[in-house]
Write a structure and sequence with these properties.
Mean pLDDT: 85
CATH superfamily of the largest domain: FAD/NAD(P)-binding domain
Distance between the termini: 37 Å
Structural class: alpha/beta
Radius of gyration: 21 Å
Largest sheet: 7 strands, mixed
CATH architecture of the largest domain: 3-Layer(bba) Sandwich
Strand content: 15-25%
Bound molecules: flavin-adenine dinucleotide
Low-confidence stretches: 338-353, 360-383
Number of helices: 11
């Protein structure tokens, strides 16, 4: 079957925040095709809950954010990448605001939440716990206003086209139907997100299947840091797939992990107790689960006033209630377990091929949230 051939200046693979934001910036430099294998919205970005860590609060500085990130990274961070994240974060979030993102405010001032390993409140959020959906909406609308961007839904990148050692485009398979298309471009950006859905248990959406890593590997790139799989400590221990993530912002607001005896245990593992880096919390949960014969630990919401839970975590509350848990009306509300989070890799550039966001390039996130914990026997992944 002949494939349709489309020529453009730039191809971006993936419609999460990394892909769309890059496309928006590339749009000044020529025509951009954004490919995405499901709908535009279906991405980890859409499901991000707690918010974005950024030094915008008047008492905060990028330098403090950098220090916290490096400390949580336990010496394993790529320092220049951390610097980019912490120094450029405020400007990037301001750009999201300028393009219409509605982050939560009180009397016009941004509200900041707190999460593990951050010494201060620095998490901007939207609609309580629907930050990702607001970021994705903003990016889709901003991209939609630019005439040089064309989006292709249900179009999965299947193979990079390599000519004379350079990346010249990408082969695409339409889903469903299986028709082939070829995009020929001066640059190809891989922004395909993570690998979480390769694991038996995951809180990632089904589209997170490491496609970008596979594309890069097949094109001859080396992958780096594949051993870094981030654990998200708290996913709801209930039926269904993907597993429902309970943001660590919940612990930032005061919720406490307790064992089967109802005893708070995080203080025995780290001086920051429930606000320890994410990997420390994940390991502690696994350790407690082992001590109690594999039973899940629980997340006690009772230190958070009910009104605050409703205001800050409306989406989480709603989902928990749908699944038969009600943190407003039971003392030890929610069974959780330590799970394994997303894998990141660094693809080396081949010609004009680049990577961004979860699919690529630099090792900040593991530092932002802490390095990898040990494997649980039944791994699960988050974003
Ligand atoms: C439940 C959950 C909660 C989270 N909460 C937070 C939070 O509070 N704060 C925070 O900072 N981070 C959070 N994260 C992580 C955050 O969402 C991700 O780090 C970020 O959104 C990744 O963006 P991305 O653009 O790199 O990837 P994604 O948003 O996953 O986008 C990848 C895109 O690539 C597309 N794609 C994949 N393969 C192909 C292919 N072969 N061809 C074409 N398209 C393809 C996908 O369909 C998707 O559109 C959370 C993640 C999850 C899953």
């Amino acid at each position: 079957m002949d494939s349709q051939v489309i020529s453009c200046d730039h191809v971006v693979i993936g419609s999460g925040i990394a892909g769309l934001w890059t496309a928006i910036h590339l749009a000044e430099r020529g025509s951009v095709a954004v490919l995405t294998k499901s709908t535009l919205r279906e991405s980890s970005t859409e499901y991000a809950q707690g918010g974005i860590a950024v030094a915008l609060c008047p008492m905060d500085t990028p330098e403090l954010h950098e220090q916290d990130t490096l400390e949580a990274g336990a010496g394993l961070c790529d320092e220049p990448a951390v610097r980019v994240l912490t120094q450029e974060g405020p400007q990037a979030v301001q750009e999201l605001i300028d393009r219409g993102a509605q982050f939560d405010r009180e009397n016009g001032t941004l509200l900041y939440g707190r999460e593990a390993a951050h010494r201060t409140t620095r998490i901007v959020h939207a609609y309580g716990d629907a930050t990702g959906a607001e970021v994705e909406r903003t990016a889709i609308e901003a991209a939609g206003e630019l005439p040089t961007i064309t989006t292709y839904e249900e179009s999965a990148a299947a193979e990079l086209i390599i000519a004379d050692g350079e990346c010249a485009g990408v082969e695409v398979v339409r889903i469903p139907g299986g028709q082939r298309m070829r995009f020929i471009a001066n640059s190809v950006l891989i922004a395909t997100g993570g690998a979480g859905s390769l694991f038996l248990y995951s809180t990632n959406p089904p589209v997170a299947t490491a496609d970008g890593m596979a594309l890069a590997l097949r094109a001859g790139c080396a992958l780096q840091d594949m051993e870094f799989v981030q654990f998200h400590p708290t996913a709801l221990a209930s039926e269904g797939y993907p597993k429902f993530l309970i943001s660590e912002a919940v612990r930032g607001e005061g919720a406490v992990l307790v064992n089967s005896e109802g005893r708070a245990f995080m203080g025995e593992y780290h001086q920051l107790a429930d606000l320890a880096p994410r990997d420390v919390v994940a390991r502690a949960i696994v350790s407690e689960m082992r001590k109690q014969g594999g039973q899940h630990v629980r997340l006690d919401f009772s230190p958070i006033p009910a009104a605050r839970i409703k205001e800050r975590f409306p989406g989480i509350l709603d989902e928990l209630r749908k699944r038969g848990f009600d943190p407003l009306h039971s003392a030890k509300a929610v069974c959780v377990w330590g799970v394994r989070e997303l894998r990141r890799a660094r693809g080396q550039p081949a010609g004009q091929q680049l990577t961004a966001g979860r699919a690529g390039v630099r090792q900040t996130h593991r530092g932002d949230n802490g390095p990898t914990g040990p494997s649980t026997r039944r791994p699960a992944a988050e974003g």
